[in-house]
Amino acid sequence: MEKRNQTAFPGFLLLGLTDDPELQPVLASLFFSMYLVTILGNLLIILIAGSDSHLHTPMYLFLSNLSLNDICLSTSTIPKMLLNIEENSQNITYRGCLTQMSFVLIFGGMENCLLAVMAYDRYMAICHPLRYTVIMEPWFCVLLILLSLLISVVDSLMHSLMVLRLSFCSYLEIPSFFCELPQILKLACSDTLIDNILIYLSSCIFVGVPLSGIIFSYVHIVSSVLRMPSSEGKYKAFSTCGSHLLVVSLFYGTGFGVYIASVIMNSSRKTAVASVMYSVVPQMLNPFIYSLRNREVKEALRKFFNRIAFFL
Questions:
Q1: Residues 172, 91 contacting (CB under 8 angstroms)
Q2: What is the predicted pLDDT for the residue at 137?
Q3: Helix or strand run (H / E) with residue 174
Q4: Are 84 and 93 in contact (CB under 8 A)?
Q5: For the chain, which has fewer Cβ within 10 Å, the N-terminal or C-terminal residue?
Q6: Region 159-170 average pLDDT
Q7: pLDDT in tens, 17-76
């Protein structure tokens, strides 16, 4: 197969979720609606968390950053897909594909880290309430957010630099609606052993460590809640972390589901459909989970809409 260097490399073809031209408008409408709901829902969470003084706490600071990250993650993938459908094109340049892959890795890793940070916040609030305000000071919360961003950028930079050294063959088709790292590696003509080893190592470190921290936090949270004497205290404690636990289950559940689907399914197109579950759906549902299950958020939403109605 003919190798092409990176200076003359034309780019890739994003095959999307279907090659049926009749389904393309339906698919575009569906993804545009999901993108719009994601943007508006997460922006609403950010607005109410910033406008309501009762929500100026570490928990809602992390939630606002999670919502901002969800907006960025969705923006990294869906607009390019909608543009390709509109232009009836499947092309994405080499530079554009590598940029998209890098941003997906950054914001995907950021979400992973933020969920671990939020679990730590709930652990401190429930298991060590007397020390909570001393430890979770604003500067420390900002430091945790910046550390999460740094970890995500370092992970993305390592993978991007490894992809830059690869040469690619004439078979340029990516069976997905965005540039995924594993799909890009499958198109390389040069040896990708080091890249695959790096993927497994970084997954163990940058996914395994935060996930272990989440599990550790919730084991101690459940243990502390069960020791509480009053049922009212138990309900209040569980309600403060119930929304976060649902978001964690959705994020990791869809991620592991896609991994299992990629192993079981022979069709790469079916795997691409499954990838929608972790790259689009959690970001769209997160605002609804927090607004429907959190009493403080619902109260802040009611006040927010009342203020808007008053000015109108």
A1: no
A2: 92
A3: strand 173-174
A4: no
A5: C
A6: 86
A7: 777 778 888 888 999 999 999 999 999 999 888 888 888 899 999 999 999 999 999 999
H/E stretch holding 101 reads: helix 94-127
CA–CA distance, 144 with 21 (Å, rounded to integer):
46
Burial class from Cβ neighbours inside 10 Å (0-12, 13-18, 19+) for residue 187 reads middle
For tokens 């916040």, the residue is: 121
Strands, sheet with 173-174, edge to edge from the N-terminal-most edge strand: 91-92, 12-14, 173-174
pLDDT, position 290: 81
Q: Is the Cβ–Cβ distance between 155 and 206 less than 8 Å?
A: yes
How many Å apart are CA 107 and CA 75, to the nearest integer? 10
Through-space distance between the first and last CA atoms of the chain, rounded to whole angstroms: 65
Tell me what percent of the chain is helix, strand and coil, each rounded to the nearest 5: 80, 5, 20
Mean pLDDT (the chain) is 84
Burial of 198 (0-12, 13-18, 19+ CB in 10 A): middle
Which pTM was predicted?
Answer: 0.89
Instruction: Please report which confidence band the pLDDT of residue 121 belongs to, taking 50, 70 and 90 as the band edges.
Output: very high
CB atoms within 10 A of CB 200: 9
Residues 101 and 12 sit within 8 Å (Cβ to Cβ): no
Element spanning 234, H or E: helix 231-264
Sort strands 91-92 and 173-174 into parallel, antiparallel or unpaired: unpaired
